[in-house]
Design goal:
about 350 residues, alpha+beta, four-stranded mixed β-sheet, three-stranded mixed β-sheet
């Protein structure tokens, strides 16, 4: 019942933001070294490691096994394959906006469509500026920019390059896809009674969808901001397996590594589960998925502490190309092409992304 509700939420959200455009450029996803070779159903706890760690294991005197905190370097590597998009000039220098009085803001978007929309607006009022959408690695900016208050150099458009000012007051905002933000709010506000109404009606009518969206916008206890609250979705029973890399000197075993996938896109997660269930054995066709939702910032904070959860066996799945409808060629579309293109076994999805800071590209 819960998954039926989730599927209907996903459908309602997707319908609210549907476009007629198609994707320009190739698909992008996890790099080849971490691409999944198998999806599987798993019972028990939410997380797990290798065979002798499947249920978290036990420490001394029967206490739960504890996994060490991840370092900043570990987390940067964990986030490295996730692309984010921003408006820059032709040299890769970031474009700082002032949406409110005396507030300087730089936006990173998980969905290039939103970066494209910002680019279009800026070009409309700054025709003389040579602007573009650039792709960056989330891992390379998470601590160095998103969690930093370092000085940066600002220059007004059209002024000489020697006329600059130094500022610590630039706010970096990471913006989730609006559909997934709405989906997270709907998950938090829909009740069992809402599910019963859906069951009785045989589906979500336009009126029910509008009422659910209104409730989500007004009553959600979390994900109220449109930035820096990034929803991450997962199904507890879902697992993917990563085959050992032939050039991985640290891997002395040929046993595949079992990972829990976590998704930025609820629609991608729902679609993946549905495709798997079509091919699943009959005895698990009725498995009710345990759906989990959390904030990316909370997730990273938990990773930096000793935990009963082995975060090293969790993988973030970037938004699939199917979620990026409407990307135009020559803007974010050019950044997408080649990012994790499955047609090339050696393609590096980070090859076209920017450096550790905006000034590095």
């Amino acid at each position: 019942m819960m998954f039926r509700l989730l599927a209907l939420i996903s459908f309602a959200v997707a319908s609210s933001y549907a476009t007629r455009s198609s994707v320009a450029g190739g698909a992008f996803g996890i790099s080849q070294s971490s691409r999944s070779s198998l999806f599987a159903i798993r019972g028990g706890g939410l997380f797990g490691g290798k065979k002798n760690e499947k249920d978290g294991g036990e420490g001394d005197a029967g206490s739960p096994k504890k996994y060490p905190a991840m370092t900043k370097e570990d987390i940067e590597e964990w986030l490295e394959h996730i692309p984010v998009f921003a408006v820059t000039d032709s040299n890769g220098a970031g474009v700082v906006l002032r949406p409110e009085n005396d507030t300087s803001v730089f936006y990173f978007f998980l969905n290039p469509l939103q970066a494209n929309a910002t680019l279009t607006q800026l070009k409309a009022v700054n025709e003389e500026m040579d602007l573009k959408v650039s792709a960056f690695s989330l891992g390379k900016i998470w601590f160095s920019l998103l969690q930093s208050d370092k000085d940066i150099t600002l220059r007004k458009p059209g002024e000489d390059e020697s006329v600059t000012e130094s500022s610590k007051n630039v706010e970096y905002r990471l913006v989730p896809d609006t559909r997934d933000l709405l989906g997270a709010r709907m998950l938090l506000t829909m009740t069992p009674e809402d599910g019963e109404k859906l069951k009785e009606s045989g589906g979500m009518t336009p009126e029910m969808a509008q009422a659910a969206i209104k409730k989500a916008m007004e009553e959600s206890p979390k994900f109220k901001q449109t930035f820096n609250e990034i929803p991450v979705f997962t199904i507890a029973q879902m697992r993917m397996q990563r085959q050992p890399s032939s050039d991985d000197n640290d891997n002395n075993s040929e046993e595949p590594e079992t990972l829990l996938p976590m998704y930025f896109s609820m629609q991608n997660m729902v679609g993946t589960w549905q495709e798997f269930m079509k091919q699943a054995p009959a005895d698990i066709q009725g498995v009710e998925p345990a759906i989990n939702l959390m904030s990316l910032h909370d997730l990273v904070e938990m990773m930096q502490k000793e935990s009963e959860i082995d975060w090293r066996h969790v993988v973030l799945v970037p938004m699939a190309s199917g979620s990026l409808t409407g990307v135009g060629s020559g803007s974010a579309g050019s950044a997408i092409a080649g990012l994790g293109d499955s047609s090339s076994a050696t393609a590096d999805p980070m090859a076209k992304m920017g450096g550790a800071t905006l000034g590095d590209i």
